Amino acid sequence: MRILVVDDEQKLAAIIQRSLAEAGYAVDAVHTSDAALEQIAVENYDLLILDVMLAGSPMDGFELCSRVRRDNPDVPILMLTALGTVTNRVTGLDGGADDYVVKPIHVLELLARVRALLRRSPKADSPVLQVGEIRLDPASREVHAGGTVVDLTAKEFAVLEYLMRHAGRVVSASELIDHAWDSHYEGYSNVVQTYIRYMRRKLEAVGQGEAIQTRRGAGYVMEVPS
Predict the structure, then answer these.
(1) What global pTM score does this model have?
(2) Beta strands across the sheet bearing 26-30
């Protein structure tokens, strides 16, 4: 799942970005409305988090929300702001926001609201994914295989979820990076190979070591049992 954070407070945006990334989401952060519109034009986001007070921007968060909603009717939008009056909340919701959270907010509450919006999103897929003996629940963020819990890190979970949502299709390494890492990722090139290896070890322990197949030169595929 890819999320865009738009907040002119760069320190706060970085905290939100890091917290969401640690939870397994791919997160981009920008600080103006112009930059947000540029990102939305080139990336397919699953959720937007917009601050209302965007200093130095040609439009505030309310205007940005209305603009985005007009062109992207299905993307969930969470407004995050210090303006907590009833009038402000109504303005945000009437402008197309799906949820409205007043600062300061605890990270755990923010994560819970993000999960809730993603579950309700028209773009959301089936709440529980199953390929063969492997069962993944995006809501509880748990993976089971043959009745045994598979303990995955947040990034491993994100990679496995994407492979399971596209079971039977070869997924390239660059596609997985686009999904599970942010757009400015500049780490080592074989990061996907490394995470696939980690997951295979854990799946091998529950008898599912062959579930993820490598297609040399093309990517990886989650095999669908015949």
Answers:
(1) 0.68
(2) 26-30, 2-6, 47-51, 77-81, 99-102
